[in-house]
């Protein structure tokens, strides 16, 4: 198979509707691309067997198969081709299914040519070199430190997610690195030269939400003295990170869903809608599934946001990573303060390793900042850390049941988790889907936990 030059990029268009295939071909040729057309899945598969394309645009429903079959054929052939699927108007389910299976992006019919051009440029990174590079602030692209199995698993998924456009839903406790993960996805993606806009949904007053998200026209309300864009316009071409998405009021959830589905927004006071091209990454430390059940979060929006779930592990699940991260943070503190790098005494290391860190890495940052101030400047002792007794420790100390070998804490927590999973599996006759329900976690989460605990 031949390697092509930058000016020699080849796109495969797969559509049984010949008029649409011709229109797509024409648009792509105008963009300087070489186009091959296939009018069905079988024809597409034959072409894929011969050529590694730079991009594939495929219709979802064709008489001899589905767009997902084309996607699969490309994956089986081992090609790295980004695939965008074209879905029927309003058919969110099939778009979501395609994204879950690794499609790069989707276009809804009728295909808006401007949207098509944006997608193609993004997939082929056309203009990326010419675009003014928005330099990330220092530390924004810095890695999440650590080498434990759960963190490595998260990093692998982050790497994968950076290579497509699917909406990502990040879960994890407070301070576990959800925003950091979102930044890594953005700065590793083809959108890296465009803005990353982080919004804390819980911090915006309800009456300002619509104008903050979508902007407003001059005169729309008292004080609107000029036209202004909102978060969507600010993130155009880049990524919009919706932190604490569970805090969005229901009225705003409807508007957000519309904006995501239609890829259009309307400024407050405007009559016209405008196209927006943003990748949505959302996060929350709450259980959104439970909020959906309680009627506090819209099922359809949850479904739209939660295309791929990334779970950030809690620090207490990350074993010795707590020490790696602590050393990194101490180094940063020393650089910031222009002081010598203090080391952790062996006893302080044990104390850090045993503490449960309900506030995760953010809590560790605070603990260390305080410890540096309290220490002699050379070595940090357990007392300098001022760690309070964690729930698990007090359970060990006060339980009437003789809990021998409670520590190390991680082992204790792992054992407890394993017992709960085994009980749920026993109760459901080994049915993992049912067991996940019993445990109140998603099937993915259960599978992940079982893998982490070495339960096959
Ligand atoms: N593995 C890690 N290595 C180094 N720093 C980390 C790691 N995980 C988190 N951090 C740091 O911890 C702090 C908290 O992370 P971040 O803000 O991304 O958490 P969060 O989950 O979004 O928190 P919240 O739920 O409160 O919004 C940040 O300063 C981040 O850089």
UniProtKB/TrEMBL annotation:
Q: Which UniProt keywords apply?
A: ATP-binding, DNA-binding, Nucleotide-binding, Phosphoprotein, Transcription, Transcription regulation
GO BP of this protein: phosphorelay signal transduction system; regulation of DNA-templated transcription
All copies of domain Response regulatory, residue ranges: 10-124
Pfam families tied to this protein: AAA_lid_14, HTH_8, Response_reg, Sigma54_activat
| Highest taxon of the lineage | Bacteria
Q: Which GO terms describe its molecular function?
A: ATP binding; sequence-specific DNA binding
Chain ranges of the Sigma-54 factor interaction domain: 144-373
Work out whether the entry's keyword set contains Transcription regulation.
yes
Q: Which Gene3D superfamilies match?
A: 1.10.8.60, 3.40.50.2300, Homeodomain-like (1.10.10.60), P-loop containing nucleotide triphosphate hydrolases (3.40.50.300)
The UniProt entry, under InterPro entries, shows:
AAA+_ATPase, AAA_lid_NorR, CheY-like_superfamily, Homeodomain-like_sf, HTH_Fis, P-loop_NTPase, Sig_transdc_resp-reg_receiver, Sigma_54_int
| Entry keyword annotation includes Nucleotide-binding | yes
Its recorded name reads Sigma-54-dependent Fis family transcriptional regulator
Q: Tell me which species this is from.
A: Chitinilyticum piscinae
Q: What is the lineage of its organism?
A: Bacteria, Pseudomonadati, Pseudomonadota, Betaproteobacteria, Neisseriales
């Amino acid at each position: 198979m031949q390697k092509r030059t930058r000016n020699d990029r080849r796109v495969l268009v797969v559509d049984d509707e010949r008029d649409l295939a011709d229109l797509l071909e024409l648009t792509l040729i105008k963009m300087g691309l070489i186009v091959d057309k296939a009018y069905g899945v079988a024809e597409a598969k034959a072409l894929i067997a011969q050529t590694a394309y730079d991009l594939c645009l495929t219709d979802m429903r064709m008489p001899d198969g589905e767009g997902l079959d084309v996607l699969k054929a490309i994956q089986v052939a081992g090609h790295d081709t980004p695939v965008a699927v074209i879905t029927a108007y309003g058919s969110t389910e099939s778009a979501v299914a395609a994204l879950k299976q690794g499609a790069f992006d989707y276009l809804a019919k009728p295909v808006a040519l401007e949207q098509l051009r944006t997608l193609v440029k993004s997939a082929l990174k056309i203009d990326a070199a010419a675009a003014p590079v928005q330099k990330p602030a220092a530390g924004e692209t810095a890695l999440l430190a650590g080498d434990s199995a759960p963190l490595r698993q998260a990093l692998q998924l982050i790497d994968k997610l950076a290579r497509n456009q699917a909406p990502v839903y990040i879960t994890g406790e407070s301070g576990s690195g959800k925003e950091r993960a979102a930044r890594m996805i953005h700065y590793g993606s083809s959108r890296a030269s465009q803005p990353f806009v982080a919004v804390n949904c819980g911090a915006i007053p309800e009456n300002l939400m619509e104008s903050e998200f979508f902007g407003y026209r001059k005169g729309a309300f008292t004080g609107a003295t000029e036209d202004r864009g909102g978060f969507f316009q600010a993130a155009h071409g880049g990524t919009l990170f919706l932190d604490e998405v569970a805090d969005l009021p229901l009225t705003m959830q409807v508007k957000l869903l519309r904006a995501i589905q239609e890829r259009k927004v309307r400024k407050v006071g405007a009559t016209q809608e405008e196209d927006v091209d943003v990748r949505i990454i959302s996060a929350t430390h709450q259980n959104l599934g439970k909020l959906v059940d309680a009627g506090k979060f819209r099922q359809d929006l949850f479904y739209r946001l939660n295309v791929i779930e990334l779970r950030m592990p809690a620090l207490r699940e990350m074993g010795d990573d707590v020490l790696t991260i602590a050393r990194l943070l101490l180094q940063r503190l020393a650089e910031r303060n222009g002081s010598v790098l203090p080391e952790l005494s062996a006893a302080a290391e044990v104390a850090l390793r045993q503490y449960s860190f309900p506030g995760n890495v953010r809590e560790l940052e605070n603990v260390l900042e305080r410890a540096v101030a309290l220490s002699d400047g050379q070595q940090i002792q357990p007392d300098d850390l001022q760690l309070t007794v964690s729930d698990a420790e007090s359970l060990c100390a006060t339980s009437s049941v003789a809990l021998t070998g409670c520590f190390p804490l991680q082992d204790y927590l792992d054992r407890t988790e394993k017992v709960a999973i085994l009980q749920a599996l026993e109760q459901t006759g080994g049915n993992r889907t049912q067991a996940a329900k019993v445990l109140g976690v998603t099937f993915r989460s259960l599978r992940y936990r079982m893998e982490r605990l070495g339960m096959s």
